[in-house]
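From the shared-data thread, chain only:
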Amino acid sequence: MTIYAVGDIHGQKSRLEEVLDRVDRDNVPGAEVVFIGDYIDRGPDSRGVLDTLIAGQAEGRRWTCLMGNHDRMFSNFLADGTITHPSIKSGLPWSHERLGGLDTLASYGIDTGGPDMQAMWDAAQEAVPQTHRDFLSGLPLYAERDGLLFVHAGIRPGVALADQVETDLIWIRDDFLMHRAAHDWMVVHGHTAVHGADHRGNRVNMDGGAGYGRPLRVAAFEAGEVFELTPDGRERLAPGDWGAAPAWSA
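Structure, as tokens:
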């Protein structure tokens, strides 16, 4: 069984199209594609990314789309105008350029040139289709597949899956990233931008930093191996220098 994982897209529709083409050229019939979350913000075409994912699912493609923290922030804004979250360590609002919320609103044709967030919220009520709202609100927090656990940010080490909380699943960093022991699964995640798909033995980080202008990453998980799909084809992704690699079944 082959499962592909796509890292944080962050409004980069053209790069999404590139990695989907790589999946098609890899040509594994019936394979599932899991998108790790953060479809929006920072990039130029968040609306286009959501259109692509929604259309693919409607066509019956085996695409599983998970919730990311940026997706949650956009959903919260659409619901009641909230632009802050206690898990943002910097304290910056979603509308700050570092978080990229205004880039998302602009992709819907909303005027983001002024400071009036109420006016932007009012405009979003008209501009954001209900299909996009439903998609965002219905995103699952994780997907468990044959010894693999796909999740946006990570998990709280030592906590049963049923007891994990959303805040950790879409926001956690240090406590998860610095944990070197094996988990009950190979955890496949994003959220923390690195410079390429990063295999640490007990986890694989798929956030290659597309939101910062770097390539979008996609990898195939197959028969206990990880292969990054590059423009030239598959390249085996070996574990880094720490972390015991738990086995998982194909």
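The two ends are 5 Å apart (CA to CA).
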